[in-house]
Each structure stands twice: as C-alpha cells, then as structure tokens.
Amino acid sequence: DSRSQRALDLLRMMSKEGGVCAPNVVPYSTVIHGFCKEGKVSKACDLFNKMGQQGVKPNVVTYTSIIDALCKARAMDKAESFLRHMVDNDVRPNNVTYKCIIQGYSSLGLWNEAVKIFREMTSRGLMLDDVTRNSFVASLCNHGRSKEAAEIAHQMIESETTVSN
Where are the PPR repeats (predicted)? Predict the structure, then answer.
C-alpha cells in the first residue's frame, strides 16, 4: 500500500465514525495531491467525486492538483474540463492552475491552445511567474510563433516585468 492509500483508509475511517471527525477539504485535498504525485490520477478523480458526494467543496488546491496530474499525463481535454468545472463552481483558478495547463499544451506543441489559455489567464488579471513566462516566450520563438511571443513579451513589459536574454 502506498502512503496515499493508507491516508485514504484513514479518510474512510473518519467518515465512518458518525461524522464526529468528518474530513473537510484539507485532508481530501492532501490525499488527492498524494495520488496525483504517485501518478494515480483515476484514484484522485474518484476521491474528488466522493468528496463532492460527501458535501465537501473542493478548493483551488484540490482542482490544481488534478489539473497538473492530467496535464503531465497528456490528458489536456480532461484538464481543461476540470478547469471549466472549477470556474463553473465558483472556484477561482490561480496562476499555478493556468501554468500547469499552459505547460501541458506547450509540451505537446499545441501553441494555439497554450496562447488561448494564457490570454484567458491575463484577462482574469493573473500572470505567470518570470521563469515560466520567459520559457514560454522562448518556446514560442523557437517554434516560429514570434507574433504571440511578442504579444506576451509586450504584456510582460506593461506589467513591469522584463524578459531575460
């Protein structure tokens, strides 16, 4: 048994105690994150669904853990579906959430999708960290996407951030 499986067993035990010590979003998110780190995305998604059935509302950490794991598994449709579910349920994605999806699309060479997500992110007033932005701009340039790279670099300059050479 993995650590995440043992933690899941503890969650189940907590739930069976008649609600005296019913788990909230923190232990659920912790176990979900553990399953994601172990590459057990389907177990993480199952627990995510169980969490909802128990009336526990996921937070940005819960969603981002699953989105990150789905992106690393190259399941971008599912990752975007979780992003939409997140927004529909009034959980606000943060810059880490968007970073996962942008990096996922970029790693697959799906530049239009990566740029689309970047634009969505900036329309919400969020920005990537300097290292990720610089890497994204360089990747766009290296793949013949200089127009998008220039647009992103311009946004970085406007937000008082600079692109390193």
Answer: 24-58, 59-93, 94-128, 129-163
Q: Which tokens go with 112?
A: 């239009």
Please compute Rg for the chain using Cα positions. Answer: 18
Nearest Cα to Cα of residue 38 among 65, 61, 9? 65
pLDDT in tens, the chain (165 residues): 778 777 777 767 776 756 567 788 999 999 999 999 999 999 999 999 999 998 999 999 999 999 999 999 999 999 999 999 999 999 999 999 999 999 999 999 999 999 999 999 999 989 888 888 888 999 999 999 999 999 888 887 777 654 554
Residue ranges of the alpha helices (H) in the chain? 3-16, 25-37, 41-53, 60-72, 76-88, 95-107, 111-123, 130-142, 146-158
Residues counted in the chain:
165
Write the CB contacts of 19 (distance below 8 Å, at least 6 apart in sequence): none
CB 36 within 8 A of CB 66: yes
- Report CA-CA distances (Å) from 110 to 50, 67, 115: 33, 17, 9
